[in-house]
């Protein structure tokens, strides 16, 4: 997740860049790509002792948990209950959506007009295209829209529970969360409007983001780099001074069952900075717990808590 930050500072910028290097190196598709990324990273570290120090700290955090996954016998009863609850509670439009992803699945879809959508874990969208408009109806989850230029000038709009985000350019992310929606612009500009005030949009520029509800659009905030914003498309999450409850909420997207914080009020001031792997959420959780000196407790593999030791 690309964390919100109103202003930039030197340490934040260094952490952002160090996180980018880790995402680039760990996400390399071939050994040649990895070697090239590692060489470029070494050159960056050699530029300044602070670069090397911050990168080493981030790398140590990433490598802190290298124990193999424990073998666990799943609780069949809990799995059945969770499956039934999900089936009953899942809105019809989600499981009947044109495009949807399963838990832990991230998928890219190319549309008829040449635009592309990358759907995060647990995302559901309907695609509606006619002579006047290209509309993506977001029912749940997070989507990256890469918008192709339309010869007839049809607008490209992502609509959802809280309002709409209309592309005035090419790439942006729309994330429909539990209580609000977030838009992050990676290229060009996007007009965002709440559902109750569709005629009062605000225009976001590249590198800006905003949270909004169905009633109002919040203040603009800066987002982390494009690499950090897109880390989830490469099975990573990047955080910079993020509240622990936000980290847990993000990890919950990719895990079955319930992941929560015990005594959340007591831990509300804890902040986490680092890169987490999404292809092993147990390891990701251990990284968070070790970094923040928390304890992991579980009733079953499907009911897990973070708590103070």
Automatic annotation (TrEMBL):
It comes from the Bacteria. InterPro entries: FecR (IPR006860), Ferrdict_sens_TM (IPR012373). Pfam families: FecR (PF04773). Residues 100-190 form the FecR protein domain. Transmembrane segments: none annotated. One of its GO terms (molecular function) is sigma factor antagonist activity. This is Anti-FecI sigma factor FecR. The lineage of its organism: Bacteria, Pseudomonadati, Pseudomonadota, Betaproteobacteria, Burkholderiales.
